[in-house]
TrEMBL record:
It comes from Shewanella litoralis. This is TonB-dependent receptor. Keywords: Cell outer membrane, Membrane, Receptor, Signal, TonB box, Transmembrane, Transmembrane beta strand, Transport. Gene3D superfamilies: TonB-dependent receptor, beta-barrel domain (2.40.170.20), TonB-dependent receptor, plug domain (2.170.130.10). Its main location: membrane. The keyword Transport applies. It comes from the Bacteria. It is a multi-pass membrane protein. It is found in: Cell outer membrane. Transmembrane segments: none annotated.
């Protein structure tokens, strides 16, 4: 089916049956007899013009910049730009088992960043975010990053910015390029190969690019910082602040031995039970010690996922006559990747006293075991393709020039996710039931197909036959389609005293549809230890009309070189929630030729994604503290909380054992769109005294209201047991029998569905960019310095920490400069992120040096303090930069909305500022080829240790430890 679709799509492009336009370049006569002047529609405006300095704060990444970076994927390139925040990529393993790579401008979330290809919408995933790994970097000519909201221009999702990827155009001849690289440690190898063909006749042109990229894996155990759950701390602490897993290859079994009831584990120096032998060796087991018996899962995890991508890009253009051109393009990408985690933990096990391998001679509930024969793997196979086309042209009417276009595009992505290393719940239950020895072989009583499972023999006690019986490989499918059609017309309307009034207006239609189909065993909750997941299926459509105009207000007056107003509006009619209208106004003022001031205010919106609307209820495991834990601060400090817990049936001796709640999340078809307001005020300075120098400084503020999200598990628990709000208690179910993990009272289900919040998110700061191109006797120089300084990020309205926000929650205040603990996609919120590149070229040689600066961050260090006390090593406290820090803790007075502040111990750790240096040098040979070599992380800078990072000891916003060396070659024919 895939092959048939691709062949059809390519034939359509070659024949020009469907036609597509980049919508980037348009040439027109400025006056009779004059040379043609190129008009360009830059990202953020649909009006084509010759003046490129507008009210749009824009970052341009050229093909030379891409080559200079030494990076082989678009996702890694975008990850490092100053405006981008924490986002998923192939350096995120746990938490990104689908292998997607996203971009999150302004750190607003990837679903609030719009990604375009040649000005047209690229297909999003079901969750609304775009997987940029499906866009082949080899086909990219340049990238324009708009640092402003643009819903009036492009519609939904363009709240915090736009990434417009512009593919290669007007290429003649052939070119082969390839690169190879890897880390000094001998891993993480990457290789690329690309070939491009292009040619143009009198009326027809065609371009084709075929590319291949391969990336090898890096294991956590191959770097010191990622080889243990928390770097610098003992690797096997499963409690008291440690992160080692309590589910180990030596097991845990709640049993009574010689009158002592407790949780027992196999002594690692003993053999335990042996396959196909009746087991009575209870003396081989000891009481489990959470300070020494935890399992170090870290070495098996990937810190770089392996991936392989093959892509095809094909475009064709044919001039039908002097004023109409037909264009088409096809883009296809096939990506495979694989995440890897430690072997599947088996928890909540019930073992029959009649099992041949049960040495305790008693029924056991809540047992746990981890068979480490093979790790869990999550393989992703994703096919994405788009075929699109347009007709575009120009005409003269009443001595005015006009241009128009009409386009159609169809995109589709199909994904197969295959999981290995998982187990069938029912078969595990049968394998732990009654069994006996028959003719020297263990057999399940009454079930000939069953193979008894030995979880009492340590890592070597499980045989391949046992694994074969209980193993399953769930296969999940997902697909999404996007139909997109549109037409527009624009041009010059009327001559005003200050210049020509220009406009563009058009209509657009989109239809989104998709589904996520989990494996039937997953739907039924029969995959042991895996989150049960329900199918997602649905769709919606939107019809839109937009208009944009540029009105010159003043020109060529004293101290007024130009004043210009850009106004735009978009009206959208969604099939699922109705209408939304979003205007924008942008003003530019140039007092003289060298200086331009700009300001803008834009309304924006984001329609709910298919997942947010139609997702079935899925299991989740968020980390949270149970207020009913008798050792929690909430419990010990409030009689009202204790009374609320008792009324809910929680024992007065309950202690939380599982640090993660069992929660269900899911969609809500009644969701409304998010709305936003974006403001920009800035200045552009191009001093005529210094040719080639350009400076821009912009203040930005983005406010997002009606935010789509879910209450955290902690919020729901707190509102129930601390504030006593019954509607939240109705969302919580507790395990009263101990079947979950032999600890009656644990939260077994907590319902947290998608909803709109009255308030939302706000961020404010400054963008600063300097470019300087000049020539000396030593050669040509290029300097680019791009920086983003974030002043505020947090609740809308900028409340102080401890104040109640508009949704009735206690605000965390300004999060800038603070690392969010346990964020799987990265928790970094840098105050300053800056990139400086200095390039040089002279005749056939060139070189460059790039410096990236990431400012300091502060994180909680409480887990280190807890470990130091738990293991009796007070010297570990010194790992925290400020172990004795005190801070105010804020909580609602139980049963009220009043906030009470208490000074508590709040140990902190500072992640020092980090600077990476990259270097590259190359040679343009006499046989029309280019050879270059480079080093990323020239000085082998290690990422700062983050004790609160998710599943690792450094945040994925930093680079993988180690120098990366590469070489590339390009041959033109």
């Amino acid at each position: 089916m895939k092959k048939t679709q691709m062949v059809l799509a390519i034939n359509m492009a070659l024949l020009g049956v469907t036609v597509a336009s980049s919508g980037i370049v348009y040439a027109a006569e400025t006056e009779e007899g004059a040379n043609k002047v190129e008009r360009i529609a830059v990202t953020g405006s649909r009006i084509k013009r010759t003046d490129l300095e507008t009210a749009q704060p824009l970052l341009n990444i050229s093909r030379d910049d891409i080559d200079r970076s030494g990076l082989s994927s678009l996702s890694n390139l975008l990850k490092e730009i100053a405006t981008n925040g924490a986002s998923l990529g192939l350096q995120t393993n746990n938490g990104n088992t689908g292998g997607a790579a996203t971009v999150s401008l302004r750190n607003c979330g990837s679903a609030r960043t719009l990604v375009l290809i040649n000005g047209r919408r690229w297909i999003p995933q079901l969750g609304g975010n775009v997987d940029v790994s499906t866009i082949p970097l080899a086909a990219v000519e340049r990238i324009e990053v708009l640092k402003d909201g643009a819903s009036t221009i492009y519609g939904t999702d363009a709240i915090c910015g736009v990434v417009n990827v512009i593919t290669r155009n007007d290429f003649e001849g052939a070119e082969f390029s390839g690169s190879m690289g890897g880390y000094e440690q001998g891993d993480g190898e990457q290789e690329t190969a690309s070939i491009t063909f292009g040619g143009a006749g009198e009326k027809t042109s065609i371009l084709m690019n075929v590319a291949y990229t391969k990336q090898e894996s890096i294991l956590g155990g191959d770097r010191d910082i990622s080889s243990v759950p928390i770097y610098n701390l003992p690797a096997n602490i499963s409690g008291s602040g440690g992160r080692a897993s309590p589910t180990t290859p030596y097991g845990q079994y709640t049993a009574t031995v010689d009158g002592v009831k407790g949780s027992y584990t196999l002594d690692q120096s003993k053999t335990g039970c042996v396959a196909n032998q009746e087991c009575t060796s209870v003396g081989d087991f000891k009481l489990y010690d959470r300070l020494t018996d935890g399992y170090n899962f870290a070495p098996v995890n990937y810190i770089q996922q392996p991936s392989e991508t093959t892509s095809l890009y094909l475009q064709a253009a044919h001039q039908l006559n002097d004023s109409i051109t037909a264009k088409s393009d096809v883009m296809y990408s096939q990506r495979t990747s694989e995440a890897q985690l430690a072997a599947q933990p088996m928890g909540g096990l019930a073992i029959s006293k009649d099992s041949v391998y049960n040495p305790f001679n008693q029924d056991i509930t809540g047992g746990s075991f981890r068979p480490i024969v093979a790790p869990r793997s999550f393989a992703a196979d994703v096919d994405t393709w788009r075929v699109s086309g347009s007709l575009e042209g120009d005409f003269e009417l009443a001595d005015r020039s006009f241009y128009w276009d009409a386009f159609a595009a169809f995109s589709e992505t199909n994904s197969v996710f295959l999981k290995n290393g998982f187990f069938d719940t029912n078969k595990v239950k049968a394998a732990l039931g009654a069994s006996s020895i028959t003719n020297g072989v263990a057999t399940c009583d009454g079930n000939a197909a069953c193979v008894p499972l030995n979880i009492f023999g340590g890592p070597d006690g499980v045989t391949q036959e046992m694994l074969d019986y209980i193993s399953v490989s769930p296969r999940n499918l997902a697909s999404q389609t996007l139909h997109n059609y549109g037409a527009s017309i624009g041009g010059d309307v009327v001559e005003l005293p200050a210049g020509m009034l220009a406009f563009v207006a058009g209509v657009e239609y989109q239809r989104h549809a998709g589904y996520d189909s989990p494996d039937p065993l997953t739907v039924a909750g029969q995959v042991l230890g895996d989150n049960a997941s329900q199918p997602t299926e649905g769709g919606f459509s939107v019809s839109e009309a937009f208009a944009e105009t540029v009105i010159p207000l003043l020109a060529d007056l004293p101290y007024v070189k130009k004043v210009e107003l850009n106004a735009a509006v978009r009206v959208s009619d969604y099939s699922n929630f109705g209408n939304t209208t979003n205007p924008s106004f942008k003003l530019t003022y140039a007092p003289v030729d060298d200086v331009m001031f700009r300001a803008s205010i834009s309304d924006g919106f984001r329609a709910p994604s298919l997942t947010e609307l139609y997702s079935g209820q899925n299991d989740s495991r968020p980390a949270a503290t149970d207020p009913c834990d008798i050792k929690s601060v909430a419990y010990t400090s409030s009689a009202q909380t204790r009374a609320n817990c008792l009324a809910a049936g929680v024992s007065t001796t309950f202690e939380q054992k599982d640090p993660q709640f069992r929660s269900k999340i899911g969609g809500n078809p009644d969701l409304q769109p998010e709305t936003s307001t974006s403001k920009i005020v800035g200045v552009v300075y191009n001093p005529s005294q210094i040719e080639g120098l350009g400076l821009t400084l912009d203040w930005f503020n983005v406010q997002i209201e009606n935010l789509i999200g879910t209450n955290t598990a902690q919020t729901i628990a707190n509102r129930c047991y601390i504030q006593g709000i019954s509607q939240y208690c109705n969302l919580i179910t507790r395990d009263t029998t101990g079947a979950l993990n032999s600890n009656p009272g644990e939260i077994s289900n907590l319902l947290a569905l998608s909803q709109n919040f009255v308030g939302g998110y706000e961020t404010e700061g400054y963008d600063f960019n300097v470019t300087y191109n000049f020539t000396t006797s030593l050669g040509d120089w290029q300097i680019n310095w791009d920086s983003t300084y974030v002043d505020y990020a947090g609740d809308i309205g900028q409340p102080d920490r401890g104040e109640v926000n508009v949704d009735g929650n206690i605000s965390g205040g300004n999060s800038v400069g603070k690392l969010t603990a346990g964020a799987s996609g990265g928790g970094s919120e840098f105050r300053l992120k800056s990139n400086l590149t200095v390039g040089w070229s002279n005749d056939d040689f060139f070189a460059s040096v790039t410096a990236q600066f990431l400012s300091k961050q502060i994180e909680s260090c409480s887990n280190v303090i807890t470990v130091a006390a738990g293991v009796g090593q007070p010297e570990l406290r010194d790992l925290c930069s400020d172990p004795d820090n005190m801070a105010m803790s804020y909580a609602f007075t139980p049963g009220t909305t009043d906030v009470v502040a208490t000074e508590v111990s709040a140990p902190e750790n500072k992640l020092s500022p980090t600077m990476y240096f990259d270097a590259q040098a190359g040679w343009n040979t006499s046989w029309d080829s280019t050879v270059s070599v480079g080093i990323r992380n020239l000085f082998d800078k290690e990422p700062p240790v983050a004790y609160s990072a998710f599943a690792n000891s450094y945040d994925p916003s930093y680079r993988i430890p180690g120098r990366y060396l590469y070489a590339s070659f390009k041959q033109r024919f």
